[in-house]
Structures are given as C-alpha cells and as structure tokens.
Amino acid sequence: MTGTSITRRRAAQLGAGLVGAPALLRLSPARAADDVIRVGYVNALTGPLAGFGEADGFILEQVRKILGDGIQSGGKKWKVEIIAKDSQSNPNRAAEVAQELILSNKVDLLLATSAPETVNPVADQAEANETPCVTTNCPWQPYFFGRNGDPAKGFKYTYHYFWGLEDVIAAYLAMWDGVPTNKIVAGLFPNDADGNAWGDPKLGLPPAFDKAGYKIVDPGRYQVMSNDFTAQIAAYKKAGCEIVVGNMIPPDFATFWGQCAQQGFKPKIVTIGKALLFPSVIDSLGARGAGLSSEVWWTPSHPYKSGLSGQSCKQLCDAYTAATKRPWTQPLGYVHSLFEIAIDVLKRAKDVKSSASVLEAIASTDYKSVVGPVKWTGQPVKNVTKTPLVAGQWRKAANGFDLVIAENKTAPEIPLGGKLEPLA
Amino acid sequence: MEWANSILQGVLTGGLYALFAAGLSLIFGVMRLVNIAHGDLIVLAAYLALVVTQTLGVDPLTSLALVAPGMALIGYGLQRFLLNHTLGDDLLPPLLVTFGLSVIVQNGLLEVFTADSRRLQAGGLETAAWPVMPGLSVGALPALQFAVAVAVVGGLQLLFYKTAIGRAFRAVSDDAETAELVGLDNRHVFALAMALSLAIVAIAGVFLAVRANFDPSIGPARLIFGFEAVIIGGLGNLWGTLAGGIILGVAQAVGAKIDPGWQLLAGHIAFLAVLAFRPEGLFPRVRH
Q1: Cβ contact (<8 Å) for B261 and A223?
Q2: The pTM is what?
Q3: Per-residue pLDDT for B207 more than 90?
C-alpha cells in the first residue's frame, strides 16, 4: 500500500459509520413513511428487451408530475412513490429486483411489463410474498400457463391484462381475407418461448390455419440469431408459398428478408409477429419495409383516452415525440396504462396499506384506459383480461412509415385505415 | 440442386464467420489474448459506421475508410493502456478484463444509441443477386463478403511473412522475452496487433450491419461463431481460420437442410468433433 494508506483506526471509524448508517437513515424518514404509498415497477431497460422500456423515462416523468404531491385514498392524502427497477432482460434479475422491492422497499403494489422474461418472475415473487401485482405487455398464455396456472383456480395476488394467441390468429386471418392468394402459408418459428407457442401443432397457429382453409408449410424450429435461411426459403419456394407468417426478432427477420430477395422468393403477404412492432425496425429495412404487416396492440389512431392525463392516443404519442424526438412505439400506450390502472386501484382501495384491500380494488377494476377498457371478469381465465388486438400494414409515408390498421373485425371500435395491399 | 444451393450459401456464410474470427485468431496468435469483447467491438464498429454514414451521407463500404482507422486507433489505445497490463503467465486476467469491457461497451452503446434495432443501407447491394442457374443463385452481398474475407486472410498472411512488422509479430508470438532482448518493444508490437485486429473488426462490423439489424446487446451471440471458426481451423493459423469459418457455415447449412432446428446444432457438433478428435484444430500453426 502506498500514498494515502488507510490506518487501522480510520478503517474502524469507517466501519462503525457504515454499520451505524442504516439505523440513522431508518430513523429520519420513519415518521413520513406513514403517508407514503410505494409502487414498485419492473421493466427491461437494458439487454435484448430494452426496446420495450424505451418510453419509460418519459412516462414516469409524466406520471410523477400528474401525481404531484399525492392522491386521495380512503379519506386521506397519500404521497405516491414509484420505485422503478431494471430487469436487464434477465428473468433471474427480474425476480431479484422484485424481491428487493417487496422485502426492502416494502411496496404496496407491484407492476411489471415486457415479455414473459420480466413479467413471469416478478408475478411469481409477488404471489409467493403475497403482494398485489398487475402486469401487461405479454400474451396471456405464456403468462398464465408459463407460471403453471390452473384455469380452475387461477392466482390470488397477481393480475394481468393483454391479448392472446387466439387474437393473433383471428386478426391475421381477417386481414388476409381480402387478398386473393393460393392460401399456402410459410411458417417461420424460432426455437424460443414465443416461437414454440406460435408454431405448436396442437395449440398454435397451424391447427387454426388448417381450419380456416390455409395450408401451412413449417420446416421446423430454427435457432434464434441464425445467419442463414436458405433451407427454409427453398422449402417455401418448392411448396409455392404466397404468405409468410412467423414470430421473429428483428435481426433474424432482416437476415431472412434479405436472403428472400437474393434467392428470388417473392411472397404476396409477409405478416410477422414481434419483429415488426417498432417504427425504427421498419425504417432500418429501407424500401423493403413497405408493405410488411404485423399484429397491432396500440397506435396513435386507437380511439381511447387516458383516464389519468386526459390525453388521447395521438396526444400521448405527440407528447412523447415532442419530449424525446423519437417516433411513438406500441409499448408506450401499455406502460402508460399500467400506471393509470395502478393509480385508479390505489384511489379506490379502502386501505392502501392492506394487501387484501388493494387486491379487492384490483379485482373490482372497471377502467377505461388509453389501451381500452380493463375489467377482470374471469375471461379467458381468472386473473387475466384481454385488451383489443388488430392487425396492420406498414406503408411508406411522407417521412418514414405509417402503420395502417388493415383489419378491425377483432375490435370494430378501432377505425380501419385501409385494406391489406399485396407486396409488389 | 437445392442441396448445392444450400451448401453454396453455407460456404458464403462461412466467409462472414471467418471475418468475425480473423481478428480473434490474429491476437490469440500474437499474444495469447482471448478477447471476450470481440463481438461487442464488432457492434461498436457497426455503430461508428452508422454515425459516419449518417453524418457524411456516404455508403457503408466507403465509411470503412474512416471506421477502420478509427477502430485501429481504439485498438492501439486499448492494448497499450489497458490490456498490456493484464498479460502474463495467467490467462485469467485478460479474460476477466475483456469480459468487463464487453459489459461496458454494451451499456455505453445502449446509453448513447438506445436499444433501437439499426441497420446500414447499402443501396441495392443487400438484395442484388446473380442467378447462376435455375435454383442456384448467389447474392451480391454474401459474395462480396466472402471475397473480402479471403482478401483479409490473404493480406494478413502476406503481412505476417513478407513484412518487418509481420516478422515482429511472429517473433513476440514465438518467444516474447527473447524478442525484447533483441530490441523489440513488446508493448508496441502487441498494441499494433490489436490495432490490426480492430481494423478487421471494423470490416466485420460493417458487413454485419448491412446484412442484418444490430442493437447494443447483439455482440456476444455473434462472437461464438468466431470462436468456433478459430478453434476448428487451428489456433493461430489464418488460412485455417478461413477454412474453419467455411466448415462451420457448411455444417450449419447441411444441418438446416435436414431440419432447421439442427442448423446451429450441426455447427456446434462439427466444432465438438474437431475438439474431440483433433484438439489442436484441423490446421494447427506450423512451426517456423
């Protein structure tokens, strides 16, 4: 050791200080803690799922501003403290921060969004530690069955709202209906949670497509981050596929779509889940991004309004773009709605410090959010309710691309933007 | 014909793997450094190219004129001021430091460029193709990528055996201490090797970015093929690395033809088979 060496006495002082600090810290805010509601929030801000958390900073700022110095609940004024944690796109980390929020921060309500990788471990921790929890941004089957949910019993402390695979199927089929094709569909499913669920020969897309008169050509599950799709493209060309359907991540889709051009495979319709959600991805595909289609959870043209900020979908997107200079994204609406519902629940709870009372408030939710109405009625299963899903097509616009809603049979209140146009 | 096409595409994909691997092979050969951050540095190069193409309005391949020297500078500094301090008898410190570097690069990129999935546009290059015969067509981009991989490996080979700096590389690789005794400054030679490695990383990064989308977290997944190509080909042998990349690409193509689920598995099996039967790789470094 050279230079500023730490003496034994100094080390002892430091140690004593460190040991004593938590006690001191605990003392001072103890009085104030009585009238603070703590809300824990877990999302992926870093790692492969970071795209889902991109709008979080903006949303949290907006929500905190609206909350101001507090809300009225149970005849009393409460301060609301939102504690946000990053799951790093890692299920283990998500469980760890959820535990921290429950045990150290003592949150009264836990929220989580973005894919089974974040939502499931957080909900599991909440269930185990008897903390009320609301989640979204994850199709309900992986949420419910991925956590070994029993439809007859459901869960006690954890509630979820989003759409399911059956809605994707209905939306895709309704969208394709208007375009004359030979009804031979190329299936492109990766070997991951989503891909296996979508491609499942019993519960996935194939049996439903069969029933609707489409023939699906499925060469098998590919590994995520594949560099070569020649084998699949050859199989599709041989079968004469005119439609491509799948669930992919953006890099895999870009590799596939580039190779399609190189190998002369020209389908009429390309509808891909997950990869084509974000405008930035479509921009990155250049001219070949136009005409691709995808499921649509939420757009600026959805006819809903935030009950928290009063903003319409369009106004929320515009505020986001104005604040961050970035195009809107679909998770923006869902993350905003999660806080709408949380605040509605906290306002209605008879005693926000009692988990039973918060739980009761969640179960009796009947709320009109920016992503549509949310009310848990026991359908499709206990603890899960569904929000509307439609399908749409990316079209070239003055600057960049517009997502045009090309099918609204599944949710007629959402205005149609046009019909699906076959790819040139 | 379908098989022929699959294998041909596999060979071309092998060129990409060889590009990923050449830089790794080079620095392992010269200073026994295993760079865990290699994949993240490829992504860093892709982002640099993105910035250059957007600010100057040039196409991605032209941007290499700036990105390659830029990455080389980063490489020199990295080796000289950080990694040289970790080199020694123990293989672990450089592994740990480059692992840390990988985390830093990923999160730094996330902070600056957000998690958006990005891509470089190269005019019509991504989609252009030559139909050789019915059922057999060669994409312009994979072909160019393969040609560049061959040129890079050939160029490195020339540099190693025909130039003074190549002689220095070989000297410190054979016996670093003796090389110092005869007047070579190892720290400088190592730093030059890393600079060269990152210049190749820049080329790999630009091709990766033109081919498919990239985001800050994508590096490690791309790295594994580079490592496998190096091991299959034999440590320290540059032509072997190219062969390793091609073997990996073809094994994957054949696997995918049987069942897409076997694509990566077939590559890994080829890699494990080489490790099991020829742990030194197919073409281990020849002694000079």
Answers
A1: yes
A2: 0.83
A3: yes
